Every structure is written in C-alpha cells, then in structure tokens.
Amino acid sequence: RFGGGGGGHPAPDAAASTTVDDASGFESRCGACGNHMRLRVTTTAGGAKRRYSLRCATCDESFALPDFADSFTNRSEQCLLCGFDVVQVVTTTTQNGHAAFPVCPHCLRKPPAGASYRGSDFRCRDCVADGCPLATGVRGAETPICGCFACADDAPMFLTRHAATGAHSVKCGKCAAVVYLPRAAASVTILDADPCPRCSQTAGSGLGLGLGL
CB under 8 Å to 161, separation ≥6 — which residues? Predict the structure, then answer.
C-alpha cells in the first residue's frame, strides 16, 4: 500500500519531470509474464503534480493508474480477462462516485473489445465478464435511455447498476435525477427505440426486465 495525493499517468515529458520507484515498495502481479510490477511515481517540474503507474520491467511496459487516487492496496482477485492482479483504488474525494473501487491495471486503459462504458477509464464496475463478482457493468451502458425529466436541457439518462447491491437504475448524466428500477429485476436489457404507447417518448430506448422471482 502507498499513501499520498496525486494520480496515475505515465510521465508526460522526461525533460520536465522525474520518475522513480515509490518508496512504499507497492507491487502488483503482471498478467502477461507473472512477475511483479513496481509502483512508479512521476513528479512534474516544480512538484505541482504526482502521477502513478505500475511498471513491469520484464515486459518493458507501464500501466497508468487513476490520477485522482490517494492510495492503492492489493486485492485477492485476478482479472478473468487478462490475468492481472486487481488493485483497490482509494480516494478521499467523492466526485468520482466511490471512496474505494477495484480496477484492473491492464483493462483500465486497454478495455476488452466491444466494451460498453462511459468516461476515459474502464473500471471493474463497467465490465460484464461472466463469472467475475467484481464485474457489475451493464451491456449498452453508453446508450441514452431517455431525456432527463429534471434537466432544463433534456440531458440523456443512462442505465446503471449498483456495485454493491446489483440494483438497476436510470440516472441522468448531468444532474442527480434517478429512476430506481424494481429490485426483482435480476437483469435489464436495452430494447430498440420504439415510442412509448402511453407518453409517446421516443428520445431513447425501452428496457426489458428479467425478473428473478
């Protein structure tokens, strides 16, 4: 585990920054060669920003970590898709939705083919890998369901699934508006964009609920 503010991207410019092994000695196993990757810290000129990555000396490759992280810890799981050790990201901020969450260092910036997610980072919460308890993503998560009922500019709403409870909801991508779906819905499928027979809403897609009764 390491502590300290900062984030995680490879060094942007060797002339304007320095990169060294983190003093904590934090390591995580590489899924390609099986050897350990060491945590590296890059400090920009003047020490204004610290960025973190995991470096595999055997493969001669670095894997960026989220740039808003405050610390990382090891988890017991391995990514079912690539075999890399899963890393727990801890942050004291709430702007990214979680105080702590798991990521695969490899999939974070190199998501699997056909991955459905929003944002720049592919986290375990976005993954739909069968058999993985950390993969809580939903297929088609980037597809707008409908326009927001609260936003003045009719911002799009998206299907989400709570990482801890597995409950589905439709949330606005801009404001805090949310529509909670029945907890009995074990699965949710995004359907074709047909008009609703009751309200004639066509700006999005319908949902098919698979009830786990």
Answer: 136, 137, 138, 167, 168, 169, 188
Chain centroid to CA 113: 15
- The tokens for 61 are 């490759």
Structure confidence at residue 5 (pLDDT): 38
What is the number of other CB atoms lying within 10 angstroms of the CB of residue 60? 7
Buried b (16+ CB within 10 A) or exposed e, 71-81: bbeeeebebbb
C-alpha distances (whole Å) from 173 to each of 98, 146, 154 are 16, 11, 10
Alpha carbon distance 169, 181 (integer Å) = 5
Q: What pTM did the predictor assign? A: 0.62
Mean pLDDT of 41-58: 82
Q: What is the pLDDT of residues 136-181, one digit of tens each?
A: 777 666 677 778 888 867 788 888 776 556 677 888 877 888 888 8
**Other beta carbons less than 10 A from residue 15's beta carbon:** 6
Q: Looking at 15-99, which runs of residues are DSSP E strands?
A: 17-21, 27-29, 36-44, 50-56, 61-64, 71-78, 85-90
